[in-house]
C-alpha cells in the first residue's frame, strides 16, 4: 500500500520523500520521481507531513522512536499520519510520543485496495479529523475521495480493523459457499449470479472470488508466494480483531474462526494443497 500511496502523490506532482528498509522499493519510488532518504530521521528532516505505512504495531514504534527514527530530527508542528492497520492503543501511545516534540499524530487508516490508492479513490478513516492541520487534510484528499471522521485519535484504527473483519468474513463466506455448491452438483457461476441480483456481492468480494476459480497450476510459484504473504497479513489483522473483540461474547468466536480459516480462504492451506494435487479435501 505504501508504494501505491507514493505513486499517487508523485502523479499529483507532490514533493515526496521516501524511506523503506527494502532499498529496492526506495529505488523504484525514486525512479518514479520521489526523493530517496537514508532513514526515517532524514524523512522527518525534509518533510512537514510524514505518513507511516508499515506491517505491524512494533514497526510504528520503531519508525518513530527507534534508531534512525523520526524523533531524532523531528520538529514542532510536524504532522505524522499512521496509515497502517494497528491497535488503537498503538496509535494513542505514538501520539503521546510525537506530542513530546510538539508534533501532531493522527490515525489516517486507508481502505479500498492498491488500485483505489493509485486512483485517489480510497476511504480514509481519520482520528480527530477536525483537529488535523490543513496541510495534512489537503494531502489526504489527494489519496481518497471519502474522508471520514472516525472519532478521537485511535478510533480510525479501530474502524480499519472492523472493515477488515467485514472483508475477510465475506471472503470466507464466498470460499465456503463455492465449496459447498460445487461439492453438491451446483455451479459457482450461478451462485454469483444470484448473489449479484440480490445486491449482496460487493466490488471487493467479486474481485476476490476470481481466486477461487483459478486452476491449480496457476496457484503456484510466485502466485502462491503472494497468496501466502496476503494470508499472513489477513491473519495478523484478525489477531488484532480478536484482541479488540469482547472475549466473553460469542462474536469473539466468529473472529477467531475467520482467523483459522485464512489459509483455506487464500488457497494456501493443507486441504487446498490436497485438492490442487487432485486429492480429497476435508
Automatic annotation (TrEMBL):
Q: Which Pfam families match?
A: NAD_binding_2 (PF03446)
Q: Does the keyword S-adenosyl-L-methionine apply?
A: no
Q: Which molecular function terms from Gene Ontology are attached?
A: NADP binding; oxidoreductase activity, acting on the CH-OH group of donors, NAD or NADP as acceptor
Keyword annotations from UniProtKB, A to Z: NAD, Oxidoreductase
Among its keywords, does the record have tRNA processing? no
Q: Which residues form the 6-phosphogluconate dehydrogenase NADP-binding domain?
A: 1-146
Please give the InterPro entries that the UniProt record associates with this protein.
Answer: 6-PGluconate_DH-like_C_sf, 6PGD_dom2, 6PGDH_NADP-bd, HIBADH-related, NAD(P)-bd_dom_sf
- Name recorded for this polypeptide: 6-phosphogluconate dehydrogenase NADP-binding domain-containing protein
Amino acid at each position: 500500500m505504501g508504494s501505491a500511496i507514493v505513486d499517487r502523490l508523485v502523479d499529483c506532482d507532490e514533493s515526496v520523500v521516501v524511506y523503506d528498509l527494502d532499498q529496492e522499493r526506495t529505488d523504484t519510488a525514486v525512479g518514479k520521481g520521489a526523493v530517496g532518504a537514508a532513514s526515517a530521521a532524514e524523512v522527518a528532516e525534509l518533510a512537514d507531513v510524514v505518513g507511516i505505512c508499515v506491517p505491524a504495531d512494533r514497526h510504528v514504534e520503531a519508525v518513530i522512536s527507534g534508531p534512525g527514527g523520526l524523533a531524532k530530527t523531528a520538529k514542532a508542528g510536524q504532522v505524522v499520519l499512521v496509515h497502517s492497520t494497528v491497535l488503537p492503543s498503538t496509535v494513542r501511545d505514538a501520539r503521546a510520543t510525537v506530542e513530546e516534540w510538539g508534533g501532531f499524530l493522527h490515525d489516517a487508516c486507508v481502505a479500498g485496495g492498491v488500485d483505489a490508492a493509485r486512483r485517489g479513490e480510497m476511504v480514509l478513516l481519520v482520528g480527530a479529523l477536525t483537529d488535523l492541520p490543513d496541510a495534512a487534510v489537503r494531502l489526504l484528499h489527494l489519496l481518497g475521495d471519502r474522508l471520514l471522521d472516525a472519532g478521537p485519535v485511535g478510533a480510525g484504527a479501530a474502524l480499519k480493523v472492523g472493515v477488515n473483519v467485514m472483508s475477510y468474513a465475506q471472503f470466507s463466506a464466498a470460499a465456503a459457499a463455492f465449496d459447498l455448491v460445487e461439492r453438491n452438483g451446483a455451479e459457482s457461476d450461478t451462485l454469483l449470479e444470484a448473489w449479484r441480483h440480490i445486491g449482496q456481492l460487493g466490488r471487493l468480494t467479486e474481485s476476490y472470488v476470481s481466486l477461487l476459480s483459478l486452476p491449480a497450476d496457476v496457484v503456484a510459484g510466485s502466485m502462491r508466494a503472494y497468496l501466502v504473504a496476503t494470508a499472513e497479513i489477513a491473519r495478523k489483522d484478525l489477531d488484532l480483531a480478536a484482541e479488540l473483540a469482547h472475549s466473553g461474547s460469542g462474536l469473539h468466536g466468529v473472529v477467531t474462526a475467520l482467523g483459522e480459516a485464512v489459509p483455506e480462504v487464500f488457497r494456501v492451506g493443507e486441504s487446498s494443497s490436497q485438492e490442487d494435487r487432485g486429492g480429497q479435501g476435508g
